[in-house]
Amino acid sequence: MTTQLAEHFFRHEYARLVALLSRRVGLQHLDAVEDAVQGALVAGLEAWKRVGPPDNPTAWLYRVAYNQVIGELRQEARRRRLADQHGASWAELAEEAPDIQLLADVHDVELRMLFVCCDPGIPAESQLVFALKTLCGSNVHEIAQRLFATEASVYKRLSRARSHLATLRPSLDDLEASTITSRLPAVQSILYTMFTEGHLSSHASRPLRRELCDEAKRLALLLALHPLAGTPETFALLALMHLHTARMAARECGAHELLLLNEQDRSSWDRAEMALGMSWLAASAQGPAFSRYHAEAGIAAEHCLSPSLAETRWDRIVDCYELLERVAPSTLHALGKALAVAEWRGPEQGLVALEQFDPPGAMADSYVCHAVLADLHRRCGRLEACERHSKWAIAGAPSPAIKAALVRRLTIERQH
C-alpha cells in the first residue's frame, strides 16, 4: 500500500500539485513549492501508516503542501526584514487556501504549466529537462539516460531554466493564444519524451513504466481537446502513444523481462488501444500538416496491423522512415530504417543503408548504435564485427532488462 501510494502521488499527482501551488504563490517560488510537495508526500506516508489514508488524499496533500510553502515564504520574508510587507500577504493567502475539490480548472493549470516550461528564453534542452524534472517527477539520472547526456549537464540545464523563470516571474494566468501556438511544438516534444521514457525505460528494475505512459497520454489528450492545441500534430502524437500502448503488455513477461518483437504474443495486443490509435491517426490526416509524429504513428500502425512478423509490410515501414528522416533527421531514425530495410531486402542491404552513416560523437558510442550494427553483422555472418559491436552494446545497456534482451538477440541467436 505504501509503495503504491508513493508511486501514484509522485507520478500522477506531483505535477498537478506543483502547478496548482505555483499558480497560487508564483513561479519564482518553484523551489519552495517542490520542497513542500515532496514534504507533504512524506508526511502523508507517515500519517497514513498509522491511521489510514483520508477520504481525499489529494486534497489532504494539497492542504499540507500549501501550509508548508506559505510557512516557508513567511519565514523567508522575515529573514529579509520584509515581514511587515509580505508576512501579512502570505498570512492572507494561508487563510484563503482553496479546497482542491472545488478547483474545476486543475487540468487547465497543468497545461499552462507545460507552456510556461517552454518559455523561448529558456534553451530548448533546458526546457525539456525542466519539464521532465518538475512536471513528470523524473530524476536526474533518468533524464540523463533518456537524453544521452551526463548528469552534470542535466543539472546545468535545470539550473539555467530555474534561473530564467525566477528572473521573469511569469504568471500561469497570462498566457495568450499566440504564446500557446508558438510553444506548442516544444510541449509536444516534452510529452513525446515523457512517453518514450515509459515505453522503454532506463529504470534499473522497471523496463516498462506504464504509469509514465498513461500520464503522457492524459496530458496529450488534454492538448488534443484544447481549442488551440488540438492540431493534426497533436492528434498524431496521441495516435502514436495509443498504438505503442496497445503492444506494451506483450513486451514484458516474468520478472520484468523485455520480449523482442518476434517473441511477443500478438493475441495479447490491446485491440481497444489499437482502435483509439487508429482513430486519432485518422483525425491527424486533416490538412497538409505532416510531422514526425505522423511518420512514427504510421510505423506503429503497420506493426499493429500485421498478423505476423513475416507478414509485416516492411516496404511501407521503410517509406515511413524515409518520410521521418526528411522531417526529423536523427541517428535513431537512420538506425530504425536500416533495420526495416534489412527485414525487407536482407541484412546486407541494411548495412548498405548505413554506408553514409556518420552519427555525432555521443550517439556513435551509444549502446543503440552498437546493437544495430552487431545485429546486422550477425545476420550477415560477420561474426568478428558482430562480436566487437556486441560487447559495446551489452556493456552500455542502460538497464538489466535491455541488457538481457541484447544478450538473447546478439549472443544466443548467433550460435544457431
Description:
The chain has 416 residues and is mainly alpha-helical. The chain has 20 helices and 2 strands. It has a two-stranded antiparallel sheet. A hairpin with a 3-residue loop joins strand 1 (252-253) and strand 2 (257-258). Helix 1 (2-25) runs antiparallel to helix 2 (30-51), helix 2 crosses helix 3 and helix 3 packs antiparallel against helix 4. The longest helix has 24 residues, at 2-25. It is globular and about 75 Å long. The two termini are 46 Å apart. Residues 100-104 have low confidence and may be disordered.
Can you describe this structure in just a few lines?
It contains 20 helices and 2 strands. The protein has 416 residues and is mainly α.
Structural class: mainly alpha
Give unreliable regions as ranges: 100-104
Give the N-to-C terminal Cα separation.
Answer: 46 Å
Q: Based on DSSP secondary structure assignment, what is the total number of beta strands?
A: 2
- Give the strand line-up of the largest sheet: 1-2
Give the helix tally. Answer: 20
Shape: globular
Strand % is under 5%
Series of H and E elements: HHHHHHHHHHHEEHHHHHHHHH
* Gyration radius, rounded: 23 Å
User: Which sheet architecture does the biggest sheet show?
Assistant: 2 strands, antiparallel
Helix coverage percent: 55-70%
- Residue-averaged pLDDT: 83
